[in-house]
């Protein structure tokens, strides 16, 4: 859909945050959410996590620690990504109707590997209090990425650099109701830090572009609840993680605008609010025998909560529609106990994109994806277990289409029509250590 932008601080802040929070990478479960929260879970494509017990499943279900004992988990996921974005006829229309093609440096239309590889850490700790009660704490990075396009890229009026860092601290309590039912609840404290840059067109192709940058951060809160049932060979789990209403306080700088639009060069403060999605998960584990366990999980994600960016600034406000859709994905997998020291895992997951055709920008090169995983756990000692996993992520090819009008409502109105295609794939290597003591 067309997005109207003007060179004023508050509205520019909203556009920046909207774009930033919609960047996708092949390593993500869906759009800007990181699925890499457990090395053990990665080995079976995150199937059965809501029904499994132990501290490494704490992100998925607060009830998982009700009967795990005193335990620490530390994990690290390395993401090696291969992505590309290609021009498919992007244009810029200046005042008076003159339309020119938008290309990259030296007329190229390909941007290779705009999504940077990186590391994702996790930590969790659980401790029993009495016979039936347990408390836990977890640290995760649910939203964490960097994307960089080359200076002068054909995407420049939509995106140059996007960086998002998040830290989520979860405080959890769980209770063993009886010999088959566990319940749990938790509070999330989430910090988000962001940086974004992009180009702004001047009023002639002979003039250099202007530049817009944003830096902002904020801390906000959410909650989660869950339950597990353990009956013979069967384990069932349900969990719900709430949406979080975020508000970023930011500094916006716009420079390099010339001539009639030079008054748009500003350094301003403002806020932009948006809501991240809720997550509902249901999973089952069935022990076929003493060695083989089958796992299945369904995830419903409330992406429609990310419906708009709402802006407040000194002289007014605005709302920018995002129009994401709720999604349903899932995974199946297995655990196979080879002996008393070694367990093998495998799984396949499907995660659909919440973005819609015709509303996908260079900051949202997101498509449906499949995850294919394999892993292994080794008991190094009676107390220490090492989990490893390797996941291949296949992202469907997708189209980019975004119309954007700069300086709308003035004689300087300039329209960017971004058209492109995107593809990607990735490898995630995961390692984690669980220590029961």
UniProtKB/TrEMBL annotation:
Subcellular location: Cell outer membrane
CC terms in the record's Gene Ontology section: cell outer membrane
Span of the signal peptide: 1-29
Protein name as annotated: Membrane protein involved in aromatic hydrocarbon degradation
Membrane topology designation: Multi-pass membrane protein
Record flagged with keyword Membrane: yes
InterPro entries (alphabetical): OMPP1/FadL/TodX
Stated family: Belongs to the OmpP1/FadL family.
Keyword match Metal-binding: no
Keywords: Cell outer membrane, Membrane, Signal, Transmembrane, Transmembrane beta strand
Originating organism: Brevundimonas subvibrioides (strain ATCC 15264 / DSM 4735 / LMG 14903 / NBRC 16000 / CB 81) (Caulobacter subvibrioides)
One Pfam family per UniProt: Toluene_X
Organism superkingdom: Bacteria
């Amino acid at each position: 859909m067309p997005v109207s932008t003007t060179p004023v601080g508050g509205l520019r802040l909203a556009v920046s945050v909207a774009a930033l929070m919609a960047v996708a990478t092949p390593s993500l479960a869906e759009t800007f959410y990181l699925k890499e929260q457990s090395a053990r879970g990665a080995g079976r494509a995150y199937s059965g996590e809501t029904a499994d017990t132990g501290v490494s499943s704490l992100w998925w279900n607060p009830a998982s620690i009700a009967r795990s004992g005193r335990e620490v988990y530390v994990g690290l996921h390395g993401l090696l990504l291969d992505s590309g974005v290609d021009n498919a006829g992007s244009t810029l229309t200046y005042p008076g109707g003159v339309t020119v093609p938008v290309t990259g440096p030296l007329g190229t239309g390909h941007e290779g590997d705009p999504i940077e590889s990186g590391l994702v850490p996790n930590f969790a700790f659980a401790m029993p209090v009495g016979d039936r009660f347990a408390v836990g704490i977890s640290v995760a990075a649910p939203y964490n990425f960097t994307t960089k396009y080359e200076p002068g890229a054909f995407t420049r009026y939509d995106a140059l650099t996007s960086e998002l860092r998040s830290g989520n601290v979860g405080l959890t309590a769980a209770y063993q109701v009886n010999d088959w039912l566990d319940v749990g609840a938790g509070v999330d404290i989430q910090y988000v830090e962001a940086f974004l840059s992009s180009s702004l067109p001047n009023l002639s192709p002979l003039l250099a572009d202007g530049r817009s940058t944003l830096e902002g951060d904020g801390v906000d809160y959410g909650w989660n609840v869950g339950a597990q049932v353990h009956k013979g060979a069967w384990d069932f789990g349900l969990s719900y993680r709430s949406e979080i209403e975020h508000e970023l306080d930011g500094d916006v700088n716009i420079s390099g605008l010339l001539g009639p639009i030079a008054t748009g060069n500003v350094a301003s403060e403002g806020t932009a609010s948006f809501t991240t999605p809720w997550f509902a998960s249901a999973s089952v584990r069935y022990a076929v025998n003493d060695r083989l366990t089958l796992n299945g999980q369904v995830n419903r994600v409330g992406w429609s909560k990310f419906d708009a960016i709402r802006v407040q600034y000194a002289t007014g406000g605005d709302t920018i529609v995002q129009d994401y859709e709720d999604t349903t994905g899932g995974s199946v997998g297995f655990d196979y106990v080879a002996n008393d020291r070694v367990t093998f895992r495998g799984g396949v997951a499907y995660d659909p994109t919440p973005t819609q055709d015709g509303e996908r920008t260079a900051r949202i090169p997101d498509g449906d994806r499949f995850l294919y995983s394999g892993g292994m756990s080794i008991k190094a000692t009676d107390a220490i277990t090492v989990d490893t996993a390797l996941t291949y992520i296949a992202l469907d090819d997708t189209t980019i289409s975004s119309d954007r009008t700069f300086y709308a409502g003035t004689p300087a109105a300039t329209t960017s029509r971004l058209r492109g295609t995107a593809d990607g794939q990735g490898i995630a290597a995961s390692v984690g250590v669980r220590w029961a003591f």
